[in-house]
Design brief:
By secondary structure, the chain is an alpha+beta fold. It has two domains: 142 residues, Beta-Lactamase; 186 residues, Hypothetical protein af1432 (Orthogonal Bundle). The chain is 48% helix and 12% strand. The protein has a six-stranded antiparallel beta sheet with strand order 3-2-1-6-5-4, with helices on both faces. Strand 5 and strand 6 form a beta hairpin. Helix 5 runs antiparallel to helix 14. The longest helix has 38 residues. It is elongated, with a radius of gyration of 22 Å.
Length: 374
């Protein structure tokens, strides 16, 4: 089985420690240019990591922005100089007892993918030989991350193109996909401490969630675009889209040599099981409770919430509080209660995401009698 990024980081760390035994931590944060967010992703640390489930806007970190813009590494020989800083990152690194650090932007074809952070308990530890070694590893890690993310973009781009060629035109606008993937990430990040999700897994929930309904390519337009209620026969055809999506993902990965993408099992879980219900009354497998993969349970809540609050040809968007009330009412039946609780804890953040990715001429706040989710 393909090792995770965190396992790769542990391997790199172990190799470096053979000659640089005081190197206590190596970590990667990845950068999302669409949101300007820098997010913890993978690490290898002696003891607990000082930073997990942490993100911050790069624009709020001028020193790191400078490193990225000028393609420079930075060495801080004595982290005591950071005392008094208002940065949570600086405070937590100092609290962990680190005394010196090395930071390098991860760039590929001049595109910023993130940063490599290294820390030692000894001041002045990052001498020139170690800096040269770390810079070489930074280039290698940049390439690995770039190939991984380009592979995911290739897969998503190919499927999106197929969707366009098939005249796939349902309610799932680009902004819907952006919103529900951002909602999914918020839910996953909130659940991470209690459910054992790593930073890396949270990020892949975000990356893969947009592909959840790709199997709808195989659904005829007459059914997909029907404004009224589907007949039982039409609904049976619609219910086939998760399996079709699973088949399409497998074919694309095999045909284009993308099997090396990390966490493909999570991608398939999301595509195949996002219409399962917590009470076992969903499809296609009739799975119940924790038999439904966690990533699929998360995406289900995010997807239905955005369907409720989005304007469509046959309904207005529900008010946010009405949609949240729907989630709460159906926790334990349609939805995993833990995922619903996580969503309810992030109401303000959900609304900010909605505001960021608004569809043209849509309005949250009008309730239409008889509107149905999904």
């Amino acid at each position: 089985m393909e090792s995770s990024f965190s396992e790769k980081m542990q391997s790199v760390h172990a190799t470096l420690r053979q000659r640089f035994d005081k190197l206590s931590r190596v970590a990667i944060a990845i950068y999302d240019p669409h949101t300007d967010q820098l997010k913890t992703f993978a690490h290898s640390t002696d003891g607990p990591s000082p930073l997990v489930q942490y993100e911050v806007k790069l624009s709020d970190l001028p020193s790191l922005r400078y490193l990225a813009d000028h393609h420079h590494a930075r060495v801080l020989d004595n982290l005591d100089a950071l005392r008094g800083s208002t940065s949570e990152h600086s405070r937590k690194v100092l609290e962990a007892g680190y005394a010196s650090s090395y930071t390098e932007p991860l760039l590929f074809n001049s595109k910023l993918f993130g940063f490599l952070f290294c820390d030692a308990m000894e001041p002045g530890y990052f001498d020139e030989p170690l800096q040269i070694e770390l810079s070489a590893y930074a280039q290698m890690l940049s390439a690995i991350i770039a190939v991984e993310f380009f592979s995911i973009q290739t897969l998503g781009g190919a499927l999106t193109t197929a969707r366009e060629f098939s005249r796939y035109r349902d309610e799932e606008t680009a902004n819907h996909l952006h919103r529900m993937s951002a909602y999914s990430r918020l839910i996953a990040r909130t659940l991470a401490p209690t459910c054992g999700l790593s930073d890396e897994e949270v990020e892949f929930v975000y990356l893969f969630s947009e592909l959840h309904d790709i199997g709808k390519i195989a659904v005829p337009d007459a059914i997909l675009l029907k404004p009224g209620k589907l007949t039982p026969e039409e609904f049976e055809m619609m219910k086939g889209h998760p399996r079709k999506g699973q088949e399409m993902i497998a074919l694309m990965m095999s045909s284009f040599g993308l099997e090396g993408i990390h966490h493909t099992d999570m991608l398939i879980d999301i595509v195949a099981h996002h219409h399962e219900r917590f009470d076992g009354q969903g499809y296609p497998g009739g799975l119940a409770g924790e038999a439904i993969p966690m990533a699929a349970r998360i995406v289900t809540v995010a997807d239905v919430f955005d369907a409720l609050t989005s304007e469509r040809p046959y309904k207005k968007g529900w008010p946010f509080e009405t949609a949240f009330a729907y989630l709460e009412e159906h926790a334990g039946s349609q939805f995993d209660p833990a995922c619903v609780t996580a969503a309810l804890q992030n109401k303000t953040e959900f609304y900010a995401i909605y505001q960021q990715y608004q569809d043209p001429a849509c309005s949250v706040g009008v309730v239409v009698s008889g509107a149905e989710p999904g």
